[in-house]
Amino acid sequence: MKIFNIFRRSLFLKVFTLSSVISIALIYFLGSNLYVRISSGIIDEKISASLSEGESAIQYADYRFIISSLNRSTDLVGLVDEIVRSTNVSAKDSGREIAFFSSNGEVIQSIPAVSTSNFLEPSSIPKSFRTQVQKSGELEWKRTKLRYLSGEELDGMVIGQRITIPRTGKYEMYVLFGFDAQQRSVDLIGRSMWGTGFLLIALIMITASVVLRQVIKPVKEAAEIAERLTSGDLMERMEVRGRDEVARLGTAFNEMADTLERQISRLENLSRVQQRFVSDVSHELRTPLTTIRMASDVIYASRENFDPVIARSAELLLSQIERFENLLADLLEVSRFDAEVAVLSLDKVDIVALVRRAVDDLGLALKERESQILIDAPEERLIIDADPRRVERIMRNLVANAVDHAEDKPIDITIKSNEGAVSISVRDYGVGLSPQHIERVFDRFWRADPSRSRIRGGTGLGLSIAREDAQLHGGEIRVWGELDKGSNFVLTLPKVQGTSPIEPAISEIPTDSSIS
Amino acid sequence: MTSVMVVDDDQDLAEMLGIVLNGVGIEVDLVCRGDEAVDVFRNNPPDLVLLDIMLPGMDGIEVCKQIRKQSMRVPIVMLTAKSDTHDIVKGLEAGADDYMVKPFKPSELVARIRTRLRRVGGEISSNLTIGDLAIDIVEHTVMRGGVEIPLTRLEFDLLVALAKEPGRVFTREALLGEVWGYRHSTDTRLVNVHVQRLRAKIEHDPENPTIINTVRGIGYKAGNTGPRG
After folding, report:
1. Is-contact B8 B50, C-beta < 8 A?
2. How far is A326 from chain B (nearest CA, A)?
3. Judgement on whether residues B159 and B215 belong to the same structural domain of the protein
4. Which of A125, A185, B116, B125 would suit a FRET pair with A38, their CA atoms being 20 to 30 Å apart?
5. Quick check: B207 contacting A, CB < 8 Å?
């Protein structure tokens, strides 16, 4: 599995191994074919040469015996001996051996039943072959192994024919040849072919690896540079040498990187300009808004001196300016998140006290609404790393949202902690949320029911900002909701910064949920 | 009559500030350039300065530093269109006592100005000592071994708030209420920056404070009961 992975990851290894395997197979196939042809050629030639030599030796012996039949005084024992000994060069030294066998296996007129040259073992001639020769009368031959009394063995062949010794009986004469010299040449050829094969394979492997490196190096370089480009280093370029295909790859790659860099910097610039614009607009709006605000306050303060229409107008003016202020503040905050310039101003914060204070402050502002807010929190302090301004804003947004949708039913706030995190749930029992609502509840300016009156004139950015604030802390907000059963928002913050992932201490799904 | 110098390049806003402050019996001197503000302050020192950060001639932070060179006592409240931590902390470190982010409620501005101008410790007639410091409430001075340590009014108020109840732990929110007059705020940057500034002036080793001690996760307390005695 591991090796498989290595192969999958390295183009070099893949191509190198493939080309090596193919060349080894090819060389092995060609080499063994050639070897078989050469070696069988050499042996075949030796066989045909031996056949004619053996035939003439047998014919000569036959001739001698025919001659001897004309002369009654011939010493047959001596003649056999002479013929057997006529081979003064052993088959071991590319010569031949001669053997005489009495066909019925008996000693007749002192001629031995078996006589061989150079201490050849009679068993070198297989029994089956003897039977074949006895039956045939023609010249027969067979591959065999020559064995000597000394224990030596060598590959070779045996040629045999029936022969009749006058006044004595039927004999078989065998001429044996060793293929030792041929075998040696064949072995030598085999060895040199192995050597050449190995050398060839090594050469092919070296060539392949050199060529592969040449081709793969720029590819690898391109891959590395592409990776660096991906990780944001837009200045990376490939080095282009020569005018070959690899150079073309490099040029094309660099052009791609140029285009990419241009596009990205254009987009970056655009979004920077856009964010800058939003931020500038918000700031520029603040000064005149301050003047308007103060002016309307002055007018509002003396509304009792005006007639009722103008007095009511002064009230509306002030409340709408307040709404406008909130919207502007939220827009500015959103633009800060979008520009990724929002930073945490961390402190050690007692989250229980902070939540109580946030609810108290909001309670003053929400006097006109009937919802009762109940807090279930631990007695002791819960100190966490947090930006108090942001956490208070999250709580304000979550509680305000709950009050807006609670339909004057009570709101439960629960604070719990586990090892690494603190969770605060804000539960209402009002209109609730459908699954489709839950998906969109953090979207900017989204409202569950557009026809619903804007009770408190919320900006529509509160929950979106709350979630951004939570994420800036490495925390999260989870939501549960069911239509007509209410909703539950659970804020979870890490106790110590940088310890995410965190596990919420409270599940967003309440115990009275029909789904759970 | 109390006089306030308003430094803002927006004429209309400055005029409106004048109307609002005149309405509550505060005399207003309007200046619209940063460089002029320093001269006006020298010739006719007001009781309090309202200072915009973005100004022609010289920016508000520099103006703040220049004014602090002339007067430790005068309260300075920055007016800023930016609520970014960076700008506010820079202003506070330059010597501003408080800041207001535009747009603000006129009533809030008036409340802040009043808080900055009131005399603290009115209920205490005797002098206080904390560590090796002698605080003279009436004279508004802090002495160490007969040498006066120059403090801004706000730093003095902060020190008195802590020193009059040694050992009591003040949360940052409590200090914000007591010293700055905030009722609903968790802007602890104000407290943190001023505690740092105060420590730099009165502690022997500001890195290991012994007069104003930090109580982790809660706030501060004054006195010899700190971890280092």
Report:
1. yes
2. 10
3. yes
4. A125
5. no
Report the topology of domain A347-494: Heat Shock Protein 90 (3.30.565)
Q: Which CATH architecture has domain A12-185?
A: 2-Layer Sandwich (3.30)
Contacts of A361 in chain B (CB under 8 A): 184
| C-alpha distance across the termini of chain A, in Å | 43
Which percentage of chain B shows pLDDT scores above 70? Answer: 92
> Which of A275, A281, A293, A294 to mutate: most B Cβ within 10 Å?
A294
The alpha carbon of A327 is separated from its chain's Cα centroid by a whole number of angstroms, namely 51
Region of poorest pLDDT, from A196-200, B120-124, B211-215? B120-124
The token duo for B95 is 């010597």
Q: Is the CB of A298 inside 8 Å of chain B's CB atoms?
A: yes
Count of beta carbons in the 10 Å neighbourhood of residue A78: 10
Retrieve residue B199's tokens: 């420590």
Q: What is the pLDDT of residue A62?
A: 87
Q: Within 10 A of A358 (CB to CB), how many other CB atoms are there?
A: 24
Ramachandran angles phi, psi of B115, nearest 5° = -60, -45
Using a CB-CB cut-off of 8 Å, the residues of chain B touching A295 are: 16
Interface size A-B, in CB pairs within 8 Å, comes to 80
Is pLDDT of A162 > 60?
A: yes
Q: Is A197 exposed, middle or buried (0-12, 13-18, 19+ CB in 10 A)?
A: middle
**Residues B47-71: tens digit of each pLDDT:** 999 999 888 889 899 999 999 999 8
